[in-house]
Every structure is written in structure tokens, then in C-alpha cells.
Amino acid sequence: MKNKYFNKVKIYTTIAAILGFLFPLFALFMDSVFKNISFNITNIGRLHSENPIHLIIDVAPFVLSILVFFISKKFFNILEASEEKLKVETEKSYQNSMFAEKLRNGEINAKYENFNENDDLAKSLINLMYELKKNREEEKNRKQEDNQRHWATEGIAKFGEILRKNNNNIDNLSYKIITNLVKYLSATQGGFFVLNDEDKENKFLELTANYAYERKKFANKKIVWGEGLIGACAIEKETISMSKIPNNYVNITSGLGKANPRYILITPLIVNDEVFGVVEIASFKILEKFEIRFVERVAESIASALASFKISHKTAVLLKASRKQGNKLLIQEKAMRKNVEILKNTQREAAKQSESFISFTNSVNHTLIRAEYNINGELIYANTKFVKKMGYKFSSEIYKKKIFHFIDRKDRIWFDEIWDRIANGGKHFDGDMKHLTKNKKEIWTMATYVCIRDTNSKVEKILFLGVDITKKKQISLDFEEQISALNRFTLKAEYSIDGKITYYNKRILDALSYDISEVKGKNYTFSMDNKNVENFEKKWEEIKKGIPHEATIKFFTKNNKEKWFNGIFTAIKNMYNEISKIIFIGNDTTKQELMEIENKKQNKTLKEQEKKLKDAKENLDVKLELAKNKVKSQFIKINNVKLLYEKIMEGMLDAVISINIKNRVIFFNGAAEELFKKKKELVIGKNLNNLFQIYHEKDKDYIKEHFVIGKAKTGFRFEVFIVNNNNKKINVLLTLLEAKLKDDYILMAFIQKIEIEFF
Q1: Angstrom distance (rounded) from CA 278 to CA 209
Q2: Do residues 382 and 429 both lie within one domain?
Q3: Residue 36 phi, psi (nearest 5)
Q4: Residue 627, CB-side half-sphere exposure with 13 Å CA sphere
Q5: Interval 89-138: pLDDT, tens
Q6: Is pLDDT at 216 greater than 60 in this prediction?
Q7: How far is CA 560 from its chain centroid?
Q8: How far apart (Å, rounded) are the C-alpha atoms in residues 460 and 481?
Q9: Is the dihedral of CA 735, 739, 740, 744 positive or negative?
Q10: Are residues 471 and 355 in the same domain?
Q11: What distances in angstroms separate CA 28 from CA 56, 63, 669, 759, one per listed residue?
């Protein structure tokens, strides 16, 4: 027990002793009155001897003092414990309520001061804080990852759409790509370089689009293969990123102009390990890893589009040239066949129409290359055209030379058999024939070798007639080689008018895992996805009418794997301008289609994750609502405890007054009303100094100066006097207690009248 209550116990014990001493005297006095004797010391002894009960009553002062001592001590111990418990519970409740309020306001990093491990509510609140921290951090990370994936997926889809819509013009494609890429990355500048490898010995990267500061830039810049960072990026086939940029870098090595960026990203456009160009991005911010990965993925799609564009463009050019050359050759062939037919007719009528034959021969000498050989292969006649085409000046230089003098050794493997057949009177030869000139240069002719018989039908000589087609043949061979190259790098199929497969090149056979024998003669819808068949049958009728059709069609391989081919179906006309067949030229776009399907799946996954996040948020809201209800329940309990203690103090015999930090009364019990003769309704909320008169015997201003929060001497009992509302002076014992909870102060005064009678 503290000293503040020990003095009270002594007072109560002293009063009990005094009362106990008066009781025996009162008993002796009353006994003397009943016995009608005077009350003096002599008669007191007489009364003790006559009535021994007075001896027992004489012990009353001691018994009463001891009894009051223990009872008052017990009472004040209980009171002290109640006050301490009230103070602790009030502080805990206040602290818990403040901490819960911070959590409710979203302050999840709030610090819980003076934590007590025995406080279950505090533990629950701290655990709730950690749970909220964890949930918020997880939600933040999930949201960041989801935003990155969503950003990348949307970007891939966006640039895929740009590539599909602008795949017929490299300049528009370059500008659309670099413009949208700079904006999508929130960069400042960008350059789009396309590889020009038409001259294999002098390859260079050409700037086809340049975009900076929200404006289109027009620049004509070429970078030699391997020159600078852009050339190095193309050779090494690796992305280059730089965050430390020299002040003069842009002017020296970059294609972006005069700005001085903080970060440069250079990414090669690669597909199937082949470089098609380079993209350069400049930014004032450093790009994140996921942004770099995104640029690399976009670069791969761009490279695929450039590869398709180059192949399609080259195919179209070659196809156009091939058609033009084919038409010319058909016309020449028609003319040649007509001439040969005339020549044959003339030969059959030679005996009867010698003059006409000579005249025709002269005409032929002016238009055709002509030579005659005996059956031993020796040249016996050559017209002027033959002599000049073979690089000689005079026919005498080649007279009696063997025919094999004009034939390449490689061609003798097949020509010897033809010569023997014709020399023995066999079938004539019509076809393209290669001869060698005096300087061993090649000359191609549309040749006819035919035997000339005498009147006895015996082979007399061999006639050669030809038309020089060297230039056309060289062009034709070049076209054939280019078409062969296209067959190696593109998909090519040929169909008859009725839709039967007549030819698949090796590339398309390998893609579908079929042999030519397995597909030849099949309908054009063979291995095609059923979903494409119905729509394509309508398009086929248009193609047969000469209307080209570009499409992406899904096929199934022999092993039932999915393949997508993108290309053009077009009709091919013969020399009579009639459609003779339909061809398909395209590329395998399976990888791009699978990427698009994967993007759609990722979008679906993102939506499902968004739903999960929404459900998680709803669960979190439910938990927070439960926590609020729990805290509210605790507030109610705390408030009940507060009301309980107020009722306890209300029922105390001592006057109890509480003031706040502004020196205003916040509690005034019934004993205080009785003592000061003031109603609590007139006191609560008023300033203490203006309501009560409390004085100390030695210092009248002492109480006024020290009855203030922060200056009060607490834990001590003072004997003071007060003047109540009836101007009555009353001596009392004053005890001050001060409670502090953070910035909130409460000062309590316990006032006890000294005249209180306990018995």
C-alpha cells in the first residue's frame, strides 16, 4: 500500500481508538446513573468491582482500533488496486483504439508503443496490421506483374495488327512501326533501318523511317554493314543497350539527329537467324527489362513481316517478268514452228519446185541461221548469218569442220545419239540448242536438224536451221534459276482448273510431311481445315475468273499438326489468254499465328487473374469489416469498463473531481455535489478556478498554482480547507492523481471531509 492511503489508515485507526476509549467511559457513566452514584474515579473502581463486564468493555478501544486498522487497510488496498487497474485498462483501451483507427485510415506502418504481450486485443491488432501489410505488398507485386504482362500482350497485339495492315509498303510499315513503338515505350526518338542486300558485296542498312519528339523526321541515311553500333548490332545479332551516352554520340554514330538521349536501345530484326534490319530507340529514361524483352519480341515479328514482304515482292517481280518473257517466247516459238512447217513443205516439194526452193532458201538465209553437213558431220555449207554468229569472217574458215567443233563436249552425250539417228534417216530434231563460237562463247538457237534425201531416198546431207535466242535464253535460264531459288525459300503449289493438285514444291511437302505421290490428284481442299473450306470454295470460283486472292489458310499435316500458310492464289494464262492453271505462292506463318493464339490465351488468363484479384479484394473487405466489428466490440467493452469505474467513483464517499488538460471539469461525483453544494450540470465543462475555492493554510495561492495538469504534486495528501457554495468553510484532505496517455492528460482530485464519522 502506498503512502497516500497509509495516512488515511492511521487517521481511521486513531478515530477508532478515540471512539473506543469513549465507549467504556460512556458505559461507566450510564451504569453510575442507573445506580444513582456520582461519576468519579473512586466510583469507577467500585463499578468495575461490582460489574466485571466493565473490564471487558475496557478492552474495546484496543479491539476497535485493531479491527478498524485491518478493515481500512483492506479497503484502501482494494481501492488502490481498482485505481491502478482502471488506469492500465484506460491506457490500453485508448492505445488500442488509436492503433485501430490508424489501421482503419490505412496507416499499416503504424507503431504500437508500450506493447503488452498479455493484451489479446493488441496482439490481434498487430497481427491484423502484418496481414494487411502482407496483402498490400502481394497485391502491389501482382498488380505490377499483371500490368507488365498486360502491357506487353496489348503491345504485341497492336504491332501484329500494324504489320498485317501495312505489309504491302515498306516505307509506310517502317513509319507506322517506329512511330507507335516510340510512343508505346514513352521514348523520344526512334530509327528504323532496313537491310539492303541487292548487291551482296556492298550491303548497307538504310534508314527508312525516323521519328522524334512527336514529329516525323525525313532523313536519307545509309550505314555500311558493320559500321558503328548499328552495324555491329546487325553483325553480332544481339541487342545493344547503353545508359552512359557520350555528349556527341547522336551526331557521330546514331541515325536519330542532334538530341542527346540518356539511354539507347539497338535491337536487330532477326528471324531464322537472318538479319533483315535494325531498330534504334532513344529515351530520356532507362527501359526496364520487360520493355527490352517486349522490343525483342516485336523485332522478331517485324523481321518475319520484312522477310515475307521481300519474298512476296521478289516473287511478284519475277512472276511478272516470267510472264512477259514467256509470252515473247510463245510468240517466237509460234513463228518458228510456222517457219519450220513452211520449210518442211518446201523440202517435200523441192524436186518439183526448184526455183521456188532456191527463192525460199534465199529468204531463209536472210532470216535464219543455216548450215549443211554431210552424213559424216562435215560442214559443206554455211550462210552468212551462221558464219557471223559463230565469230568468223569467211565461210572458208569453217569449211569441212566437223559439227562437233561447234558443240560443247558436255552436250555430245545426248547429241551424238540424235545425230546418228538423223544421219540414218531417222526423226528430225526440234529444240533449243547450244553452240560454241570461235571464241568459245555460247550461242543459243531454236534449232531444227533434218535429213535431206536424194532422188533415191538416200540421206544426202543434214540441214540445220536456227533462230538466235541467246539473250532470251540467258534471261529464261536466269528466271528459271530465280524461280528455283524461290521454290527453295517459299511455298509453291499448282492446281488444275478443276481444282486438282498437280504440283507441290519440296518446301510445302516438308511442311505438311507428305510425299508428292500422296497429294497429286487430290482436291485443292486436301488437308485444309474444314472451317476454311466453305469460305474458300466461293473464293476459288473468283480465282478461276482471274481475280487473285490473298489469304491465310489453316492446314493439317500428315501427323495432324496445325500449319498456317499465308500467300496469293492467282490464275496463269497460256498463249491464247486462256487460264491454264492456278498457282499458290506463300509463306509458312505458323509461328506468327501460334503467337497470336498464345496472346489471346494470355489475355484470357489476365482476365481470370483480374477476377481473382477482385474476389481477393472482396475477401479482404470482409476481413476488414470483421476487424472493424471486433474493434467496435472492444470499444463497447472499454466504454462499459469506463462506465463501470465511473459508477464506482460515483458511489464513493469521498468527493471525486476530474479535470482535463484545459483545466475544465469532466467528472464530478455525488459526494462532490454534497461537499461543494453545486449541481454537476453547472460544473461539468467549466473552468475549475472559476468554480471552487480551495486554500492551503500556509499558502492561499498554493493550490491555485499547483492544481494544474503538469504542475500538480501527485501521490501526497494535503490538509486544506474549502469554501462551498453556502460560504461555509470546511476542512478536508486533498489527494491528487495524474494520468497521462500520449498527449491526453487527466487530473483527479480525491477530497475527504475530516469530520466524517465512520461509526
Answers
A1: 11
A2: yes
A3: 60, 45
A4: 24
A5: 676 666 666 666 666 676 666 666 665 566 666 667 667 676 767 767 77
A6: no
A7: 33
A8: 41
A9: negative
A10: yes
A11: 12, 18, 43, 20
In the chain, the N- to C-terminal Cα span, in Å, equals: 24
Same domain, 423 and 461: yes
* Residue of higher predicted confidence among 470 and 340: 470
CA distance 178 to 210: 7
* Amino acid code (one letter) for 306: L
> Does residue 631 belong to any structural domain of this protein?
yes
Q: Who has greater pLDDT, 419 or 3?
A: 419
Q: Which domain holds residue 66?
A: 1-80
Claim to verify: residue 497 and residue 387 sit in the same structural domain? no
Those residues whose C-beta lies under 8 Å from the C-beta of residue 384, and which sit 6 or more positions away, are: 365
Closest among 289, 243, 239, 227 to 269, alpha carbons compared:
239
Cell 508503443 maps to which residue?
Answer: 113
Tell me: do 641 and 656 sit in the same domain. Answer: no
Q: What is the pLDDT of residues 544-559, one digit of tens each?
A: 888 888 888 888 998 8
Distance CA 612, CA 39 (A): 100
Rounded Cα distance, 750 and 716, in Å:
11
Query: Comparing C-alpha atoms, which of 232, 192, 194, 227 is closest to residue 212?
Result: 192
Q: Could you tell me the strand order of the sheet in which 655-660 lies?
A: 665-668, 655-660, 744-753, 729-741, 717-723, 693-696
- Judged by DSSP in three states, 566 sits in strand
DSSP annotation of 440 reads S
Q: Which residues contact 262 (CB under 8 A, 6 or more apart)?
A: 243, 245, 283, 284, 285, 286
* Whole-Å CA distances, 32 to 22, 55, 540: 15, 15, 146
Which among 628, 650, 672 is the end of a domain? 650
Q: How many domains does the chain have?
A: 6
pTM: 0.33
Residue finishing a domain among 476, 505, 535 = 476
29 and 4 fall within a common domain: yes
What is the DSSP code (8-state) at residue 677? T
The conformational region for residue 199 under phi > 0 = left, psi -120 to 50 = alpha, else beta, is beta
Clarify whether residues 254 and 202 are in a common domain. yes
Tens-digit pLDDT profile for residues 294-325: 888 888 888 888 877 777 777 777 777 777 87
